[in-house]
């Protein structure tokens, strides 16, 4: 059920290449470059195969240094990555611009490129609602003159469909064509609307024309009065056979604080009303309170949504009461893929009864299924409306969603591997070249650390493994034959070469970009296991791929 995500281009991490934090000073950058140059400079490796390996590593190190030592290029790289450095048009950017100004300039250049493709782009949106009457399940109608049968009946009492497409005419002008069809209890209706929108200074203006139950003309617009206040208003004219029915609407919005907005809305026409809304939206929750006075109904409503971003889950409760009666809602929305989500909401009210609403969102398409279970509040209906969606979701998740997501994930990983295969092979060659050039340095550092009883890397393995205690460079297959583990590589030599004054420091970035490392299992979660000795004591530590590393990690008792 996952979506085909854009292929990722694997970019260079220049900070990891030099083993530096992103906050490194110019002095630290120069020092790191000098240290690596002592290892990889081609002049230090004669004229044979080692010189070719040294040239490969030296060019990579030099490129990282050139970018990070130039404040202009470093600001672009920090904000936008390697692709930002490759964007056309940077030659016109003044070299004294700040990182924020550089990002704005990048967005401007990207917008100009996007403008060339506007004529070919649309933004289709669609909604389909199917209203289902299942009241025969819990409050069956018995008629002595009509045979109701053994099974309860389920009816489709209504259906509605709407679709819209946008056609950008320029950077400031958009045309929209939309239409809808409605069917309820055998009676149908429909309409279409053509809109033209133009962005103006501090706002926008729109003109509408359409037809449904007679021609419709309208106009609306919005303008920012200050940084915290904006107004939106519009008027419509419905032309009926014997009358012209005008409509008027207006909204004033005020930003009360960073996360809170207040709205005051007035509508005049067939259904006149005035409403006040206070809405608060943060990373963890969203809530709003609405008070509406109008014809034919007045009501008060409140809703609260809890966002569990790590789980891709939203939990929502809502209450609404007024002249129409009372309604309470409780539901959950689960993100099942990058562009898809499913939600279930149980609605209990008077006089509406019990309704279960199932909604599926797939990109810009929305499918809604309101299922009316009973016209009265029956505990059994509430129970099944709550439990059935949960059981159904977990069964589908286990049997359908998870296998499909895993298959799609692996497919995307393979596609990315294929796209970056040349570079991944080059990274492996670079790592092998780096290790072969580190031999003399490795022996010298290890000898010095042995003399002072300092930090000795006994074993270091990097890659994918679930059991850190039994991870090995070799593994046995089902037939008992031992072969090399393709998901794990030996990084003992490059780590020992990074030890300085009996300390090893790695920063918060993927270890696969360090000299002597490469990614043995692209797209998988990786770990780094280090077995080491310090002060004649043995230790073992395991780190995730992007965790910072600071060794030795010893207790006070061990130090004593």
TrEMBL record:
Superkingdom per UniProt: Eukaryota
CDD domains referenced in this protein's UniProt entry, alphabetically: DnaJ
Assigned keywords, A-Z: Chaperone
The J domain, residue ranges: 13-81
A GO BP annotation: cristae formation
GO cellular component: mitochondrion
Record's protein name: J domain-containing protein
Organism encoding this protein: Anopheles merus (Mosquito)
Classification via InterPro entries: DnaJ-like_C11_C, DnaJ_domain, DNAJC11-like_beta-barrel, J_dom_sf, Mito_inner_membrane_organizer
């Amino acid at each position: 059920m996952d979506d085909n995500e854009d292929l990722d281009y694997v970019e260079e991490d220049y900070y990891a290449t030099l083993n530096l934090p992103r906050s490194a000073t110019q002095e630290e950058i120069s020092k790191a470059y000098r240290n690596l140059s002592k290892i990889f400079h081609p002049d230090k490796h004669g004229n044979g195969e080692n010189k070719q390996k040294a040239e490969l590593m030296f060019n990579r190190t030099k490129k990282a240094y050139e970018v990070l030592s130039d404040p202009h290029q470093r600001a672009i790289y920090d904000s936008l990555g390697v692709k930002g450095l490759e964007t056309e048009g940077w030659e016109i950017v003044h070299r004294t611009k700040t990182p924020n100004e550089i990002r704005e300039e990048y967005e401007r250049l990207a917008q100009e490129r996007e403008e060339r493709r506007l004529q070919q782009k649309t933004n289709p949106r669609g909604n389909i609602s199917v209203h289902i009457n299942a009241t025969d399940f819990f409050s069956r109608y018995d008629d002595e003159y009509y045979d109701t049968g053994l099974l309860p009946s389920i009816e489709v009492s209504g259906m509605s469909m709407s679709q819209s497409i946008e056609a950008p005419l320029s950077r400031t002008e958009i045309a929209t064509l939309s239409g809808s069809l409605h069917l309820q209890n055998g009676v149908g209706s429909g309409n279409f609307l053509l809109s033209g929108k133009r962005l103006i200074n501090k706002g926008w203006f729109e003109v509408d024309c359409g037809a449904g139950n007679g021609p419709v003309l309208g106009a609306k617009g919005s303008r920012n009065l200050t940084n915290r206040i904006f107004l939106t208003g519009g008027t419509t004219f419905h032309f009926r056979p014997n009358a012209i029915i005008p409509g008027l609407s207006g909204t004033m919005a005020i930003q009360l604080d960073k996360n809170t907005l207040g709205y005051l809305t007035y509508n005049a026409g067939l259904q006149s009303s005035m409403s006040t809304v206070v809405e608060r939206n943060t990373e963890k929750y969203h809530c709003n309170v609405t008070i509406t006075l109008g014809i034919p109904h007045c009501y008060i409503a409140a809703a609260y949504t809890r966002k569990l971003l790590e789980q891709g889950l939203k939990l929502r409760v809502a209450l609404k009461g007024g002249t129409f009666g009372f309604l309470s809602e409780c539901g959950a929305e689960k993100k099942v893929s990058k562009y898809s989500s499913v939600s279930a909401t149980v609605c209990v009210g008077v006089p509406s009864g019990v309704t279960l609403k199932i909604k599926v969102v797939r990109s810009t398409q929305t499918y809604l299924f309101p299922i009316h279970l009973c016209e009265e509040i029956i505990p059994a209906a509430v129970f099944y409306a709550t439990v059935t969606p949960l059981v159904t979701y977990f069964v589908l998740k286990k049997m359908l969603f998870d296998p499909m997501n895993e298959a799609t994930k692996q497919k995307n990983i393979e596609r990315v591997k294929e796209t970056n295969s040349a570079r991944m092979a080059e990274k492996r060659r670079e790592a092998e070249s780096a290790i072969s050039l580190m031999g003399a340095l490795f022996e010298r550092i290890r000898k010095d650390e042995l003399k002072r009883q300092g930090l000795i890397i006994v074993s270091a393995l990097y890659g994918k493994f679930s059991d850190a205690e039994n991870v090995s460079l070799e593994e046995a297959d089902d037939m008992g034959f031992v072969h090399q583990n393709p998901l794990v590589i030996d990084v003992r030599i490059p780590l020992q070469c990074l030890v300085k004054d009996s300390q090893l420091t790695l920063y918060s970035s993927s270890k696969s970009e360090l000299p002597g490392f490469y990614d043995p299992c692209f797209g998988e979660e990786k770990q780094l296991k280090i077995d080491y000795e310090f002060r004649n004591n043995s230790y073992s530590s395991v780190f995730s791929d992007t965790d910072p590393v600071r060794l030795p990690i010893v207790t006070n008792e061990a130090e004593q």
